[in-house]
Design a protein that fits this description.
182 residues, eight-stranded antiparallel beta barrel, 9 strands, 32% strand, Lipoprotein
Length: 182
C-alpha cells in the first residue's frame, strides 16, 4: 500500500487542478472556432465589367424578341433613343437582355446565358426579375409604376441591375433604364 501512495499522488494533484469547462464555455469556444473558420473562407468578390451586347451578337446568338434591354444610366439619350435597343447605333449601352427564355450578358467577349427563375416576379413582356447561370445570377429591379412610353411598342422603366457570383456577392451593379417591348 505504501508503494501505491507515491504513484497515486500525481493523479490526485491533476484532479485538483482546473475544473472541466462548463457547457456555456464549450459553446463559446465552439462559436469562436466556427467564426474563425468562416472568416478565413470569406473571399472578397472578383468584380466583373459587363460589355456592350452588339447587333452582331444579337444576330449570332438569336437574341431578338420580346423582353427588356438594360441600358446603363446616362447613355439612353444617345442618337436613336426610342427606336428599340436592337436599332441603336453602335449599341454601346446595351448591357443585358432579359427575356422569357433567358437573360444574356457579355463578359470578356463571351455571351453568358442565364435561366429564368420561375419563382421570381414577372416583369413586363414575360421577363423575370431573377435569372440564374453557372457562374452568375442576375437581378433586374424595375420601377414599373414609373414607366414612360418610348416607342410604338416599348416602354422605358428606371431600373437597377445586379450580377452576383456563386457565393451571392455582388460583382457588378448599375442603375439605368430597362427598355421593355416586343
Amino acid at each position: 500500500m505504501k508503494r501505491l501512495v507515491p504513484l497515486m499522488l500525481p493523479f490526485a494533484v491533476i484532479a485538483c487542478g482546473e475544473a472541466a469547462p462548463t457547457a456555456e464555455e464549450k459553446r463559446a469556444a465552439e462559436d469562436r472556432a466556427i467564426a474563425a473558420v468562416e472568416a478565413a473562407q470569406d473571399v472578397p468578390p472578383d468584380p466583373v465589367e459587363l460589355e456592350a451586347i452588339t447587333y452582331p451578337d444579337i444576330e449570332q446568338h438569336r437574341l431578338s424578341g420580346a423582353g427588356c434591354a438594360f441600358l446603363r444610366e446616362g447613355e439612353e439619350g444617345r442618337e436613336g433613343a426610342g427606336e428599340g435597343a436592337a436599332a441603336r447605333e453602335g449599341e454601346a449601352d446595351l448591357l443585358a437582355l432579359a427575356m422569357e427564355r433567358g437573360a444574356f450578358v457579355k463578359i470578356d467577349g463571351r455571351i453568358h446565358r442565364l435561366a429564368p427563375d420561375a419563382g421570381s416576379p414577372q416583369l413586363p413582356v414575360m421577363a423575370r426579375a431573377r435569372y440564374d447561370g453557372r457562374e452568375y445570377a442576375m437581378l433586374l429591379d424595375l420601377a414599373e409604376r414609373e414607366g414612360t412610353r418610348s416607342g410604338m411598342e416599348t416602354t422605358d422603366y428606371p431600373a437597377r441591375l445586379e450580377l452576383r457570383n456563386g457565393r451571392g456577392q455582388v460583382v457588378y451593379g448599375a442603375s439605368g433604364i430597362a427598355q421593355c417591348g416586343t
